[in-house]
């Protein structure tokens, strides 16, 4: 890839680019196989590297937590299938980190030695590397639409509290037709969509329907943590 070649990036609100791929869990057809579920599709630079190892151990340890929120995980790097299998076996048998050990990665890890999928999702960033994928994260909703995109450089591991917070926030925003303020976490106030007219705004500010209005364009309301989580998490 030429250094000045334009990188094509999928955009928020667009359908997730389709692909078929071989993974450590068999072949997948993305995103069709995941219809009805949220998916986090993420890339890592290379197998047998320390930052990626720490991330995969964390993803695997949190997989059940993501699953409870109706979210599946799919990983990708430009390594081959046998490299993936050997690396994941090494993680389980040899690596202990931050109290994590005997960690088995059960979610699929895509083989992408041709870089076809990585290029389709803009995971190859020439300014960072021509031969490795950056740490990209794509949130795809149950309808197959991209809802959030995050990128991290090769040298920086991802913040997994934030990855989970984004998932819950996206679902809560959809379910309750609200928006989330800076640093929102379940239990915090949420933002009510801006009134469509001055008259509606005046009625809203004068009403006693549980809103707190700081001005016509900025109103919040309480949204209980249990209410949020009960609406999102699967019941066992």
How do the strands and helices of this protein lay out in sequence?
Elements: E1 19-23, E2 26-30, E3 38-43, H1 50-68, E4 71-77, H2 81-94, E5 109-111, H3 116-120, E6 135-140, E7 146-152, H4 160-176, E8 190-192, H5 198-206, E9 211-215, E10 218-221, H6 225-232
Parallel strand pairs: 3-4, 4-5
Antiparallel strand pairs: 1-2, 3-6, 6-7, 8-10, 9-10
Structure description:
The chain has 2 domains: 19-170, Glutaredoxin (3-Layer(aba) Sandwich), CATH 3.40.30; 177-232, Antioxidant, Horf6, Chain A, domain2 (Antioxidant, Horf6, Chain A, domain 2). Helix content is 31%, strand content 22%. The protein has 6 helices and 10 strands, in the order βββαβαβαββαβαββα. The strands form 3 sheets. Strands 5-4-3-6-7 form a 5-stranded mixed β-sheet, with helices on one face. Strands 8-10-9 form a 3-stranded antiparallel β-sheet, with no helix packed on it. Strand 4 (71-77), helix 2 (81-94) and strand 5 form a beta-alpha-beta unit. Helix 4 (160-176) crosses helix 6.
């Amino acid at each position: 890839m030429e250094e000045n070649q334009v990188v094509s990036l999928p955009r928020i609100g667009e359908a997730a680019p389709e692909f078929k791929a071989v993974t450590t869990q068999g072949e997948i057809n993305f995103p069709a196989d995941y219809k009805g579920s949220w998916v986090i599709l993420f890339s890592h630079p290379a197998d047998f590297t320390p930052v990626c190892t720490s991330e995969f151990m964390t993803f695997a340890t949190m997989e059940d937590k993501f699953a409870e929120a109706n979210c599946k995980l799919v990983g990708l790097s430009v390594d081959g299938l046998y490299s993936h299998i050997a690396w994941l076996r090494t993680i389980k048998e040899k690596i202990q980190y931050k109290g994590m050990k005997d960690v088995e990665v059960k979610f699929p890890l895509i083989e992408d030695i041709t870089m076809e999928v990585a290029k389709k999702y803009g995971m190859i960033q020439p300014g960072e590397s021509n031969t490795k994928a950056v740490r990209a994260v794509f949130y795809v909703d149950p309808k197959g639409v991209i809802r959030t995109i995050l990128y991290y450089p090769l040298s920086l591991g991802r913040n997994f509290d934030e990855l989970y917070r984004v998932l819950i926030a996206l679902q809560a925003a959809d379910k309750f037709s609200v928006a989330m303020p800076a640093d929102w976490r379940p239990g915090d106030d949420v933002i009510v969509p801006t009134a469509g007219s001055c008259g509606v705004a005046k009625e809203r500010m004068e009403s006693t329907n549980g809103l707190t209005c700081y001005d016509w364009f900025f109103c919040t309301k309480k949204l209980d943590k249990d209410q949020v989580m009960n609406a999102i998490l699967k019941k066992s």
